[in-house]
What we know:
Two copies of one chain form a homodimer. Chain A is 40% helix and 16% strand. Chain A has 336 residues and is of the alpha/beta class. In chain A, helix 8 links the parallel strand 6 (186-189) and strand 7 (219-220). At the A-B interface, helix 4, helix 5, strand 2, helix 9 and helix 10 of A face helix 4, helix 5, strand 2, helix 9 and helix 10 of B. Chain A binds a DNA duplex (30 and 30 nucleotides) through helix 2 and helix 4.
Amino acid sequence: MATMDKKNVSMNDVAIAAGVSLKTVSRVINEPDRVRGSTRDKVHSAMEALGFRANFAARSLKLGRYGCIGVVMFHLSGGAVDMIDGIADAAEERGFALTMIKKRAGEKMTLAEAARRMSQLPVDGMIFNLRQMVDDFDTFEAPKDLKTVIITPMEHPTCSTVSDDQEGGARMACEYFLDHGHKNVYFVSGKKESLSSQCRMKGWRAALEARGIEPPEPLQGDWNADSGYAAGLVLADKPDCTAVLAANDCMANGVMMALRDKGLSVPDDVSVIGFDDELYKTIPNSILTSVKFRHRELGVRALNEVVAGLEAPSSRSRTLVSGVLVERSSVKDLRA
Amino acid sequence: MATMDKKNVSMNDVAIAAGVSLKTVSRVINEPDRVRGSTRDKVHSAMEALGFRANFAARSLKLGRYGCIGVVMFHLSGGAVDMIDGIADAAEERGFALTMIKKRAGEKMTLAEAARRMSQLPVDGMIFNLRQMVDDFDTFEAPKDLKTVIITPMEHPTCSTVSDDQEGGARMACEYFLDHGHKNVYFVSGKKESLSSQCRMKGWRAALEARGIEPPEPLQGDWNADSGYAAGLVLADKPDCTAVLAANDCMANGVMMALRDKGLSVPDDVSVIGFDDELYKTIPNSILTSVKFRHRELGVRALNEVVAGLEAPSSRSRTLVSGVLVERSSVKDLRA
DNA sequence: TTGCGAAATGACAACGTTGTCATTTCGTTA
DNA sequence: TAACGAAATGACAACGTTGTCATTTCGCAA
């Protein structure tokens, strides 16, 4: 209404305008049932007229909590979107907002450094999204008053962790090959430093060894299709190669294209499985069977773990979110 | 050291431990040059010993600002990652953290509702990432004390906006076709409600009409490869179709696959351009020419605009970030 | 009308910082 | 050594809320 706005409208201003005490205004906001209807209305109109909005800082100072969860992205990749989505939705549902910081390109951020920065910000707990190894992983101790959950496939001595079951997913894919009569499985890896790639490789190895099969030398890729194509050209020349597990869908597609260019057919000559189940977005009528992880669920679990730990910060748990094998037709059944 | 930790260590505790006044501790943190070296050391050791960390709420309350920028994601898609990355890096560089909230699936969030929620949070300014139309877009007025920047291709009456130049990108691609001797350009759109798709279509139309060409009926897609494939099957039967502009790379790939399956070659029979330049990640030796937008830059600009507006919240600007045509070999030169 | 318990409201302190201004201490010069 | 200005430090209020406890007002029964 009036154009002359005080910089900030405080509860006191509202109280004066409504002709009540400051504390009554506070009650209208926090325990409206304890205020008479007529008083409540007066206060509400005053708030409306003055454009009052509660001051976050003062409120948090008094309450000793913020209602915010910190998120540290050590790594921000495509799959991260679904995870953030899950974190944000779960946070919203439980009445929390998110405060986010990010490792900058080139910067070498340790867990301790991340914790230090976060503890300067308005957060009650925090989530680290960690996809690569950091120097102080094993020695890191979270601040005692800040529940910390790490999203990582590695186990941590003191902090709760949440992870996709990448190893289990790879094992599942591998066993799927073997159960369909394949005698061996080749593997195309992602970037060396990626924990996802390492875990997927580990699961692949484990599955083969569990059946007494000597794992062949894995082929080094870099997540992109071209590296998969290069691997495919090599694999096409191996007569014993009937099954290829690629650490993601893009490389799996590269492998398939190379095989095709070498005159081999998928799945008639070689079977292929990928990871992440995203090829169908880019390739029409995609036939690629793929291991899909529920990134959204991962985010939800991480947030819930933080919130659950708000009262018992020293508790510690380990959560694994299993993957799903999305079956299409890129694997041939060699039995019978 | 000692296991008995008080819940929170305050400046006062540090002051007592160091044998100085509370204000001196404050000075050690905020204006260390005004404190004698020996005193500074005493205080630092005391802080270290007690594990002191400044209280965000008290500090913000006194200072009247938070050092945080709010980000509202009305939409969280793949391209959003790079944008968030840009926002986060720019924020970090300028000493701000990010506070994020998200529209939940199914929820119908208006700008007013987003602003209301944000103004309860610790933010000095905010960024809305808006990729679809909302009901109150034209009537929305940002809180006077909270600089608001909207990332959207639409112009807003009172708020600053930042956007990719989607229309310009589409025009650029179209003109590229025409400059290479093509007489007409077909268009495959994304989802109807997407502003990106609408803008790209608008640019395509404008470019054709500017040269006196009647735009053919656009084909409706849904961003995924299968819809592009369907469009490609239709286009393969049109004898006058030598050039296809698809609203993203996935659909462009679908179109190319359909053309191939119909016995046509790209680019010999039909030329194709896509958007977002991401096909090379999935397809080995990709030949697709594509319009790439600099999402990261978009985020950086948006954040800078907010920070710049912190002192003059009523200022208003419109920023367009141009796209880039990444040339490969999917367009044939028909001249000569 | 009076008296009573319950409901509604208010006064005041406290949360942990920083700004203002007064006071003490220091290093120099006379 | 005394006196001085500058540097260092401290006392106290203030930021805008909420918790505690005291006070006022209400509705109802006697």
